Amino acid sequence: MFKGKMIAIFMMICMIVVSAGCSQNISSADKSKLGEIKNKGKIVLGTSAGYPPYEFHKEINGEDVIVGFDIEIAKVIAEELGVELEIKDMKFDGLLAALVADKIDFIIAGMAPTEERAKSVDFTKTYYNAQQRILIRVEDQDKIKSIDDLKGLKIGVQKSTVQEEIAKGIEGIQVKSLSKVTDLVLELSNNKIDGIILAKPVATAYQKKNSKFIVPDISLGKDESAAIAINKGNEDLVKEINKILDQLIAEGKIDEFITEATKISEE
Fold first, then answer.
1. CA atoms within 13 A of residue 30's CA, in its CB half-sphere
2. Any idea what DSSP says for residue 156?
3. Are the C-beta atoms of 189 and 195 separated by less than 8 Å?
4. CA angle, corner 262, sides to 64 and 254, nearest 5?
């Protein structure tokens, strides 16, 4: 009888311990970034929408919306996680600070996973690689045919980007850094700068949109890899997004998104 009671008590203690362990695991999952996103039913994207065909503003049916192949990737991520997507359009050079401060959940903005950036945030695998090119005015195409021809010229770049680093490494040029590519394009159009270093698909998109511009066949010798930035310590979210990227790449969806975004940017 006594032995039976002791066994019963022991079993109850075991059940309590197991239950407590499960509760703790559930609590830990809820506290993770992935759990937090699923609990609130929303994931907040930080981007800088002046970078076609990656992300840019477009008037569709009389409404200003943010579109682009990065946005399509973000939509798939939100759908796979079973949550809504909220988009915050910001200056590119303010994105990392916003991510570290938890004002956004992730960044998709054609961002290269540089060593310097990786000191403050984590990155997913690369989802796209783009060559670097320079956008110039058509009238200047005969005098700008190589990197050497850039000496003495004023070249525009977006702040805190790989393009800015490339420009600073070119001997003899003046570098003008602005937060928005659209402002740089306006500067180029108004003859205030002589060219803009951009990822090839972005430069090509602006060329096709405006007959005043051209992208000469000048290689700047460095490809840009785009990856998704996530705040440090959120390995579960990085792992989940990497799975989604693997699927998109395997199915050729990202190439489809790029083709469609380029078409929209030219309309």
1. 8
2. E
3. no
4. 105
pTM of the predicted structure, to 2 decimals: 0.71
Of 165, 226, 146, 152, residue with least CA distance to 193: 152
Specify the residue for token string 């792992």. Answer: 239
Q: pLDDT tens digit string along 248-265?
A: 999 989 989 987 987 887
Dihedral over Cα of 198, 204, 208, 214: its sign: positive
Distances (CA, A) of 249 to 117, 136, 226, 243, 254: 24, 32, 13, 10, 6
User: Beta partners for 176?
Assistant: 156
Pair 159, 259: CB distance under 8 Å = no
Amino acid at 238: V
Distance CA 132, CA 34 (A): 34
- Would you say residue 109 has pLDDT above 90? yes
Task: Output the six-digit token pair for 90.
Answer: 């910001």
Give the model confidence (pLDDT) of 78-91 as tens digits.
999 999 999 999 99
Residue given tokens 């579109």 in the structure block:
67
